[in-house]
Write a structure and sequence with these properties.
137 residues, mainly beta, Immunoglobulin-like, 4-stranded antiparallel sheet, 35% strand
Length: 137
């Protein structure tokens, strides 16, 4: 079976970057931890919520790198001197990545009750009509 690419369609010009973006998203390697929700809060805003119980604000970092929202978590392992009879809660690191479309901006981040909320806004699209003049050759 031949792999179809956006370049295979002659009427779709300039979408090579979109194809690279889709490939990068597929390779992002996000595992299932921590679980998250994405909700649309209005026509032009979204909220990503991650379950980060056990993490402090200082143990979390949120960055935007090359149109990609990256949320990282690191917990310190303070188990020295403790004797566990059962250890079901591990100190664990994570990295979650979300690819952002052009025009999507990261707003504020709020931590409440073990949930990290990250608000996103998308600029309202503007309709642009451009008249192209035809000149004689």
């Amino acid at each position: 079976m031949t792999k179809m690419t956006l370049g295979s369609y002659p009427h779709m010009l300039g979408f090579e970057q979109l194809e690279r973006l889709l490939e990068r998203t597929a390779k992002s390697g996000n595992e299932g931890y921590p679980p998250f929700n994405i909700e649309q809060t209005s026509d032009f805003s979204y909220r990503i919520t991650l379950a980060v119980a056990g993490f402090s604000e200082a143990g979390l970092s949120i960055t935007v790198e090359d149109r990609q929202l990256v949320i990282r978590g690191r917990q310190s392992d303070d188990t020295e001197g403790r004797v566990y009879l059962h250890r079901g809660i591990a100190a664990r690191q994570f990295q979650r990545s979300f690819v952002l479309a052009d025009g999507v901006d990261v707003g504020e981040a709020i931590m409440e009750n073990g949930l990290l909320h990250v608000d996103l806004t998308r600029a309202k699209p503007q309709t642009v009509v451009q008249k192209i003049n035809i000149r004689k050759g």
